[in-house]
Structures are given as structure tokens and as C-alpha cells.
Specification:
Structural class: mainly alpha
Order of helices and strands: HHHHHHHHHHHHHHHH
Number of domains: 1
Distance between the termini: 10 Å
Strand content: under 5%
CATH architecture: Up-down Bundle
Shape: globular
């Protein structure tokens, strides 16, 4: 199996959908304010349905007796990622250090891995279930901590428990409970079909939204004519796309966990930032422009960096047959 080729195609597919979103908004096929509705549809409905569908179909304690270890591995990954993000942020200008640190720390932990896993292992594989278990606490962590990166936003933005107990976390908890009590056979087929069909919209929706937001930011930059941060963007790509996966690959070679854990950790280390970074930055009155530049540059470079690092990873952790 050509890991590099398959991963390249998966990443290129995501970027291609993002380019389509850029074109749709640019040609005024839909109003730009439609992106707010699509974001709500993707985050609050499509993604939770995708999560619960995979857990209902594939999760059971008999099949995954050590499932509870996955969130612990995620916690270890998060501590290392935070240390790397804070440490390397000293290399950039103080005026954009908050945006730099947050963009490094919050990786695109679901949508890139979902498509890459599907490309490598096909649909209905066990790695998707383990991905959702690995990332179960990631969404509430984002919404409860992002203001801490911006001193101006700490006093203004209060903790929102509705964001912490978000639909993704609720869907994961429900799917886990159904799997633990073996209730799959009691869920009507028509409900499962609805969950599956709506959940399939999640990934393309998010990439269309990203493309549309990139267009809006491009127009904003052209109108505002603010200075760009080319050298800082270069530093960001070097750290996020190269240093992060190298550091975690070294840790994996030292710790030697099982293949599933190692594969998921490597994916999390190699993917670019989450697409919501500019939105979170704007909420904290930060520099949305530089945040968008970080994301776009990292996404473009990831077209080659993710396949390259997964290929390298496969040399040390051969894919199970």
C-alpha cells in the first residue's frame, strides 16, 4: 500500500473542497453571511451525527477493552503540544504571540484524520472509533481555554458551559453509553440512516466554510492593506508542519505504544490548525489576519508534509495487514 500516495490524495481532496468554497463565495454563488449558518449546521448537527453513528456501529467494550486509555494518551499529547507551543512562541514578535501560540496548540484533530483514516483503511474501520475516543475531551477543552491565550479577552469572555457541553461531547457520551450497554439492536434503522447521511456532510461542510472564510479574509486584507508577517508565517509552518511531527515521532519511538495509539498521535502532530482559529481570535480581539495566514500556509504545506511524515512513520510502525 502506498501510504504517501493515499494520504496525499486525502489531503488534496480536503484542500480541493476548500478551493471550491473559496470560488463559491468569490463568485457570489451564495452570500458570505451564509457561512454562519453552515458553520452551525456543521458543528452542531453534522459532526455530532458522524460521531454517534461511528460509535453506535463500531464501539463495544468487548471489542475495545482498553478504550478508556485513549483519553489518557490524548492528555499526554496535549501537555507536550502545549509545552512546544509556548516554548516556540518566544521566537516571534510579541504583538502576534497569542495568535501564534493558539494556532500551534489547537490542531485540526478531527476532519483531517477522518478523511485520511477513511483513505487508508476504508469506511467502517475501527480507527475512527478510537479517534473519537481519543478526542472526546478536545472540543470542550478548546471552548474553555482559548481566551487564556489573550489577556484582553480573559476579563470580557465568561466561561460558557453550553459551549463546553457541546453537541460533539454529548454525541460521544451517548454513543459510548449505547455501546457499553449493547443497545445497537434497539436503535431503529431509519434513525441510523438519518445519522449516517447527515453525518457524512460534516467534512465537506467544514472545508467549504474554510474556503469561504479564506476569501473573506483575502478581501479584508486587500481593503485594509495591513502589513503581512511573511517571516513569522514561515516560522509557523516550520514549527507546526515539521518540528511538531518530528518531536512526536521521536517520543513514539521512545515509548513504543501499540500501533493504534501511535498512529493517532502521529496524525494529531502532523495536521494543520483547526479552521476555527480566526473566529476564536476575533472573539478575543486579536489579529484575525495573521491567524488566517497561519492556517492557509499550514494547510498548503500539509499537502506534502502529512504524506511525508506518515510515510516516515510507516517505516518504524508498519501498518497492520
Amino acid at each position: 500500500m502506498n501510504v504517501f500516495s493515499i494520504t496525499f490524495q486525502a489531503v488534496f481532496t480536503l484542500l480541493g473542497i476548500g478551493i471550491l468554497g473559496f470560488w463559491i463565495i468569490g463568485r457570489r454563488r451564495v452570500p458570505s453571511n451564509t457561512l454562519a449558518f453552515l458553520s452551525s449546521l456543521a458543528i452542531d448537527i453534522a459532526l455530532p451525527f458522524l460521531v454517534i453513528t461511528n460509535l453506535i456501529f463500531d464501539f463495544s467494550p468487548q471489542k475495545y477493552p482498553n478504550w478508556w486509555r485513549m483519553p489518557l494518551w490524548w492528555l499526554g499529547f496535549t501537555f507536550v503540544a502545549l509545552a512546544l507551543s509556548v516554548g516556540t512562541s518566544l521566537l516571534v514578535k510579541r504583538e502576534i504571540r497569542s495568535e501564534f501560540t493558539m494556532s500551534l496548540f489547537y490542531q485540526n484533530g478531527l476532519f483531517f484524520p477522518i478523511l485520511i483514516i477513511g483513505g487508508l483503511f476504508g469506511q467502517g474501520n475501527s480507527y475512527l472509533v478510537m479517534l473519537f475516543l481519543f478526542m472526546i475531551f478536545y472540543p470542550p477543552m478548546i471552548f474553555s481555554t482559548y481566551t487564556l491565550f489573550f489577556s484582553k479577552g480573559i476579563q470580557k469572555d465568561k466561561l460558557n458551559w453550553r459551549q463546553i457541553a457541546n453537541p460533539v461531547l454529548v454525541a460521544t457520551a451517548v454513543g459510548l453509553m449505547l455501546g457499553l450497554v449493547a443497545a445497537r439492536d434497539y436503535v431503529p434503522d431509519f434513525l441510523l440512516n438519518i445519522f449516517s447521511m447527515v453525518g457524512a456532510m460534516a467534512t465537506p461542510l467544514f472545508m467549504l466554510i474554510l474556503g469561504g472564510n479564506v476569501y473573506n479574509d483575502f478581501m479584508y486584507e486587500r481593503n485594509e492593506k495591513e502589513k503581512s508577517y511573511i517571516w513569522e508565517v514561515f516560522k509557523f509552518v516550520l514549527i507546526k508542519n515539521i518540528l511538531f511531527p518530528l518531536v512526536f515521532l521521536g517520543l513514539l519511538l521512545w515509548l513504543r505504544p501499540d500501533y493504534t495509539v501511535a498512529f493517532l498521535v502521529m496524525l494529531q502532530a502532523a495536521v494543520p490548525p483547526i479552521t476555527a482559529i480566526p473566529i476564536l481570535t476575533e472573539r478575543c480581539r486579536g489579529n484575525r489576519k495573521i491567524a488566517s495566514q497561519f492556517i492557509v500556509a499550514s494547510f498548503i504545506v500539509s499537502l506534502l508534509s502529512i504524506p511525508a511524515f506518515l510515510y516516515l512513520f510507516n517505516r518504524f510502525f508498519p501498518m497492520p495487514l
